[in-house]
Specification:
Chain lengths: 391, 289
């Protein structure tokens, strides 16, 4: 790159172009400022979110393909353009960082008088995390969880603290996996809100670079400090073309995947549909879909007592509506049938979430399709119900 | 980029008002009501009064055992004492039943929607209870008793399995004599020296005793009992927009965040447990929802 300039170049202009040195400077700068940088990297043959300290930790030269019941991580083709972020989605998103799978709620100790009292919690601030390489669907999922945890009558203070500290740096998608359907959910492949910085990777073999757009004051402050040049129309056109390609790939006319329209109303009126039984014939109730879903928020509590009975600890842990015990009351569970449990998940996600939170609970990331051991496809199940209604 | 450390929000997690942390209450008295049912009278260790509205519930925690949602059964006009009538049906409630005066229990709440007794002002008020379902209605009955002049006829229609399962048997005559709240009681199966009615509670609804055009009904009991009670009320002319029910679901948090209590679009802990029946609508009839 030529014309490299420093601070202030983006004043009044929220877009700039970074080369790989610029990206490296971003990672180094965030680390220097006290953030742990969390991004995609290869571990155990899969792409996961984990701490990265250097641009070399990113999954350059790797490609992830997903299909129903299948996730394949493999070296990119030798002649493929030089991507740093061609791995679509990590197995799990950032949910586990903002909303940990297991968290201690409190601890209580017996006292001499036969009573007990809660210990004072040491109110440690959560870690300061900067997420690099978030996909637009994941940003959308954070916005969904914000509504759940922050905007109801009761807020989750732990989520709030983690969320406030999190820096969100998106990478727009230039390729869709076969399981992706964000375009039909209105959440991608290009981020429109909710980020501090959004990068679009332009895998130009001669000049690999990123169009960087700031979406917050924090993002503007970050960007202003990086070696960069201002974005010109060529950069913007290249970024537009790259994300348009992902949209094209998701178009059903090109063999892509999409959620049917008006799915919320469809599901609200088909709670008694026989199709739920047909899904239940395949569903194993394994809870994979709810664990990888970036918006699923259901949790249970666990009580743990020391052997001497002196100390009791209460934990919150992720739960799944696919577990029979999830709906247990004295006398038995409400949702004993697999069909009722699948219906609960799908109708909550796609219909009742709107009633509860004013937004869909599905962001179209397709993880539930990819990680389902039998390849149950939420878009295909919705289509099947819609098709049977038309008959 | 050192100045960017100012980008880190310095705020720590506030622990004080966390709605997931129970408040300790001391058990002032335990009353054994039935073979499997008991009433706890609780006072806050910090002495603070516990204000609530009829129909609301608390999450009650037994040290080292667990936590369960239990409706409040006390008098809303007496916030100094928190009263819970509980039937022992599981691990936590059975452990709760073994607690004694002086023991400490954890309380989170009050949660959920109240019985809107003001909806019955100037009209007949009909309470329909099944079994231990009378316990969540008791605060509403006491609230009606306190402002009895605001209502026309007041009536409790109460059914249980056997005479031995009837709750608050000593109180019902007081409600009648002091507050003109009549009780009509029936049992599914007569035992001992029972000379009263035998049959399901819907029979009492059909017997009337209230002005169906100007009556509001508050129904609490097992789901199947509420289903038939609502049908019977509708059959005598008390339409679903004048019928309130209290729903029960698995609850872990009480604040709409754990997802366990969902009933279609509803979080029963937050949007319920008390619903005007027409707002619950057809969801009530869908299998395993």
């Amino acid at each position: 790159m030529t014309q490299r300039t420093h601070r202030g170049d983006t004043a009044g202009n929220d877009a700039a172009v970074l080369d790989r040195d610029g990206l490296a400077a971003l990672i180094a700068g965030l680390s220097a400022a006290g953030f742990s940088v969390i991004g995609p990297r290869i571990a155990d043959g899969a792409v996961v979110l984990d701490e990265i300290t250097d641009i070399a930790d990113l999954p350059a030269g790797w490609r992830v393909d997903q299909a129903p019941g299948r996730v394949e991580t493999r070296p990119a083709d030798p002649d493929a353009p030089p991507h740093l972020f061609d791995t679509v989605l990590p197995a799990q998103g950032l949910k586990r960082y903002l909303y940990p799978p297991r968290r201690r709620l409190w601890q209580a100790d017996r006292d001499a008088a036969g009573g007990w009292h809660l210990s004072d919690e040491d109110a440690q601030p959560p870690p300061a995390l900067a997420f690099l390489g978030l996909r637009p669907c994941e940003l959308a999922a954070v916005a969904v969880q914000d509504r759940v945890f922050l905007e109801g009558p009761y807020a989750d203070s732990d989520y709030a603290a983690r969320r406030r500290r999190a820096v969100l740096i998106a990478v727009n998608c230039t390729r869709a996996a076969a399981t992706c359907f964000c375009a039909s959910m209105g959440t991608g492949p290009r981020a429109t809100a909710g980020y501090d910085l959004a990068l679009t990777e332009i895998p130009d073999p001669d000049a690999p670079r990123f169009l960087a757009e700031a979406g917050s004051d924090r993002g503007r402050a970050l960007l202003a400090d990086l070696p960069q040049r201002s974005a010109d129309p060529t950069d913007r056109a290249a970024a537009d073309a790259a994300t348009a390609e992902a949209t094209r790939q998701m178009d059903p006319a090109n063999g892509g995947r999409a959620m049917i329209g008006d799915v919320a109303d469809l599901l609200r009126r088909t709670l008694d549909h026989p199709h739920w039984d047909r899904v239940a014939e395949r569903c194993l109730g394994c809870t994979n879909c709810t664990l990888v879903c970036p918006t699923c928020f259901c949790a249970t509590v666990e009580d743990e007592t020391t052997l001497d009975g002196a100390t009791a600890t209460r934990w919150r842990r992720w739960d799944s509506c696919f577990a029979v015990g999830f709906s247990y009351m004295h006398g038995g569970s409400v949702r004993r049938e697999m069909s009722a449990r699948y219906r609960q998940w799908m109708t909550h996600k796609l219909a009742h979430w709107h009633d509860q939170f004013g937004v869909s609970g599905c962001v179209g990331c397709g993880r539930c399709i990819a990680w389902c051991p039998v390849g149950i496809d939420i878009t295909a199940e919705a289509q099947a119900i819609a098709a049977s209604e038309e008959r | 980029m050192d100045d960017l450390s100012s980008l880190i929000d310095p705020a720590a997690t506030p622990a004080g008002d966390d709605p997931m942390r129970p408040r300790p209450f001391r058990i002032a008295r335990v009353r054994k009501d039935l073979a499997d049912t008991f009433t706890l009278y609780l006072t806050a260790l910090d002495g603070a009064p516990f204000a609530f509205r009829p129909g609301q519930f608390n999450m009650l925690y037994v040290f080292g055992v667990g936590e369960v949602p239990i409706s409040i059964s006390g008098d809303p006009a007496d916030p100094a004492v928190l009263v819970h009538t509980t039937r022992a049906v599981g691990t936590v409630t059975e452990a709760m039943g073994r607690l004694k005066a002086g023991d400490v229990i954890g309380v989170r709440g009050p949660f959920g929607s109240p019985w809107p007794i003001e909806a019955a002002h100037g009209q007949d008020v009909v309470f329909v209870a099944g079994g231990v379902g009378l316990a969540p209605l008791r605060p509403a009955i006491l609230a009606v008793a306190r402002h009895r002049e605001r209502f026309a006829n007041a009536l409790l229609l109460y059914g249980s399995r056997t005479p031995e399962d009837l709750l608050y048997r000593r109180e019902m005559p007081v409600w009648r004599s002091r507050h003109d709240i009549a009780s009509h009681v029936t049992v599914d199966r007569a035992t001992g020296r029972w000379t009263g009615r035998v049959g399901v509670v819907t029979k009492l609804i059909r017997s009337g005793g209230f002005d169906h055009r100007h009556a509001v009904a508050y129904v609490c009991g097992p789901e199947v009992m509420m289903r038939y009670a609502v049908q019977a009320l509708d059959a005598v002319g008390v339409t679903a927009d004048r019928v309130y029910v209290s729903m029960e679901r698995n609850m872990k948090c009480g604040i709409g965040l754990c997802g366990h209590c969902q009933l279609g679009p509803h979080f029963v802990c937050r949007d319920g447990p008390v619903y005007r029946f027409d707002r619950l609508g057809p969801l009530f009839d869908i299998w395993e929802l």
